[in-house]
Write a structure and sequence with these properties.
By secondary structure, the protein is of the alpha/beta class. The chain has ten helices and 13 strands. The protein has a six-stranded parallel sheet, with helices on both faces. A three-stranded mixed sheet has the order 8-10-12. Helix 1 crosses helix 6. 38% of the residues are buried.
């Protein structure tokens, strides 16, 4: 029997990809959007077969109406506390009132369960929502994909194409980092949404790769030798982030403040995934580190 999945945040890049993957798997897909949503974004979803419902997302009863008959709600929402905590709570409350049995929260990040609270502002917001989610009777599944592989394209210290350098903190040149492409994340999420027996937490990674391995893959892909740079100790990096955050109070209202970006780097070098669920669904294929690096390093 065809399952019905509601995707919150479907107008975003990840949400759109999740919708496409669900439709490939013959699911009926619904999304709920604000009445002021860009008509072009709604049309894109409608054209691929998504049923778009406009609603006042400040009203739980309107969300409840959209959730009636839904088998699973997938949240691909992105934002600060007003979204990750407040809006997700309303979406969850609407799903609960409608009798939806399953919920996938917007936990698409490093597995914060292994990190100390306070080390990453955006992870802490997800941790707060998790407390509320786990206090309900709905069956939840969180998908932890590490970092989206796209960040390797953006000249972060981990891979700086302009400087032809690869950076790391502490003694962690061989520490593996978890990267997942958005396409792989969307495909896996679609499988989980349709899997009534999915567990509470699932760790995935398209590839796990250390700074030294990145250097080797860049050389294989281009023939170029990038330099390795130990940037500082992890303790010094943590103190730098703390000072940067204190000096930039306006960043508390920015989704990706400079100090928040540094927090993401710190988290990647503080924990990594130990039990990947990549093989849970046999029909999925995963992008390798070398394949991904070849796609954009010239």
């Amino acid at each position: 029997m065809k399952k019905t999945i509601l995707v919150a945040g479907a107008t975003g890049n990840l949400g759109n990809k999740i919708c496409r993957e669900l439709i490939k798997r013959d699911a009926a897909v619904i999304t709920i959007v604000r009445t002021a949503t860009d008509p072009e974004k709604k049309e894109i979803l409608t054209k691929i077969g998504v049923r778009v419902i406009e609603a006042d997302l400040t009203k739980t009863d309107e969300i409840e109406n959209a959730c009636k008959g839904v088998d699973c709600v997938v949240s691909a929402l992105a934002g600060l506390g007003d979204v990750i905590i407040d809006l997700q709570k309303r979406v969850l409350d609407g799903a609960l009132k409608a009798g939806v049995p399953r919920f996938i929260p917007s936990d698409f990040c490093t597995d914060y369960n292994y990190l100390a609270p306070g080390e990453n502002r955006n992870f802490d917001l997800r941790r707060q929502f998790k407390v509320y989610l786990d206090s309900t009777d709905i069956k939840a599944s969180s998908i932890f994909n590490g970092a989206f592989a796209d960040i390797l394209k953006y000249n972060t210290p981990i891979l700086n194409l302009k400087d032809k350098s690869i950076g790391y903190w502490g003694e962690k040149a061989d520490w593996t980092l978890d990267f997942t492409t958005m396409d792989n994340t969307a495909a896996f999420t679609a499988e989980v949404a349709l899997d009534e027996n999915s567990p509470r937490d699932l760790q995935i990674a398209s590839f796990q790769i250390s700074p030294n391995m990145i250097r080797a893959d860049v050389k294989e892909a281009t023939g170029q030798e990038f330099s390795m740079q130990q940037l500082s100790s992890l303790d010094d990096f943590a103190q730098f982030i703390k000072k940067q955050r204190g000096d930039n109070p306006a960043g508390e209202f920015e989704l990706y403040a400079k100090w928040q970006q540094a927090q993401y780097m710190y988290s990647m070098f503080s924990t990594h995934h130990h039990q990947l669920s990549n093989l849970r669904y046999e029909n999925l294929s995963w992008t390798t580190g070398l394949e991904y690096i070849r796609s954009f390093v010239k």
